[in-house]
Amino acid sequence: MTGGTLTCLFGRVIELAQQNPRITVVNDNPEFLELMHELLEESSGYDVTTIDGDTITDIEPIRASRPELLIIDLRWRRDGLAGWDILMALRAEAELGELPIILCTGDLQTLDEHAEEIERDPKVRVLQKPFQVADLEGLVRGFVGNAVPSR
Q1: Per-residue pLDDT at 148
Q2: In this structure, are residues 102 and 121 in contact, taking their beta carbons and an 8 Å threshold?
Q3: 59 with 96: CB under 8 angstroms?
């Protein structure tokens, strides 16, 4: 989303605030969440919300964060929703069904199991762990554009 100017009724020019794209990151690893916050918000200026994947039981926390992009792990969970379950739940929702998603995972077996479905979804990209920061930045920019770092 870009800022700009607005000329009001009395001819005064008002600067419109820049709103950076909102990115939500869901992962069970606190260090990973911290890293993503540092890379995407502190270094690049995106508006980042992080959600502990061990606490998520439905998609409501994701919906509440109003993301323009979701970055999620495919990690298998015996006691709750796995990343793939969340992806499928989002795709079934009218409001979030078209949400761009980056699957950031080291779970190559699950990626292989769902390769055809992933390939058919134009709003899903895969970022295998470990990854290069430039690859993450490229995928994010491809989905939501650049952010403007805070002054």
Answers
A1: 81
A2: no
A3: yes
Residues 84-107 have pLDDT tens digits of 899 999 999 999 999 999 999 988
- Provide the CATH number for the domain formed by 21-144 in this structure: 3.40.50.2300
**34-47 tens-digit pLDDT:** 999 999 999 999 99
Residue 119 burial (C-beta neighbours within 10 Å; 0-12, 13-18, 19+): exposed
- d(CA 12, CA 121) in angstroms, rounded, equals 46
Q: Is 15 helix (H, G, I), strand (E, B) or coil?
A: strand
The tokens of 22 are what? 């909102």
Residue type, 43: S
Task: Give the count of beta carbons closer than 10 Å to the beta carbon of residue 13.
Answer: 8
The helix/strand/coil state of 69 is strand
Mean pLDDT over residues 68-87, rounded? 82
Q: What are phi and psi of 30, to 5 degrees?
A: -60, -35
Q: Residue 81, class by beta-carbon neighbours within 10 Å (0-12 exposed, 13-18 middle, 19+ buried)?
A: middle
